[in-house]
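Worked Example 4.2. Consider the chain below.
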Amino acid sequence: MSLGAFLDLEFDTQALPAEQAVATWLSRLHGFLMQGAVRGMAIDFPEWLPAAGGIGARPGARLRLLGATEHLELLQDRVATAQLLETTRSKVVAQGTVPAVHTAVSTTRCHRADRLAKILRNPRSIIFTGKEGEITDEVRLAARKIGMKPEVFLASQTLTQQLMQARRESVRFYCPSASTGKDFEISVRRAPLPAVSDVQRFSTYGLALEGTSIPSFTGV
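Applying the procedure from the previous section yields the following structure tokens:
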């Protein structure tokens, strides 16, 4: 898989939140790739803002598509892409060859955040792994108020804290499912890596799979 070329999209965040625009692009790219309309492609967020202070990570106003030159050109030639640019209030602001000098990042799905959220939506799946002595009278009272078993309530509090931390370090996107039409949650995180990996493996959302990194650069 070649990542020798890039295409930068910029969103009008005054007209549409960046999270909503990105979610739409992720969903449509998934469809394009599943249909074989375009070939392997990776994504990055060149203006990603990591969590700082009381504010969680944010995607920024740009989405970068990386791939082979011919694949990016094919994507731009599609009528559906022109419609997508209009729908998401986005425009192409830069494109070309990936610079020879660059750093490396990984933009991956935060499965931990998605998994914790799924568990918390179904209290029956919550398992208490603590000690009986941790269940205080205060815990019992709080659990009783919401009709939950004390041990499940206590475990859910721990899981909620873990979820909040995972979500703080990632960004949630609600993508429409191609099969059900309902929105589902994808949490994405971005982290710097020592070097671009030789093996390039990506999901049909353009998100890096385990052990995969991509070139990162600024100034375009």
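The radius of gyration is 20 Å. The chain is about 35% helix and 25% strand. Compare this with Example 4.1 before moving on.
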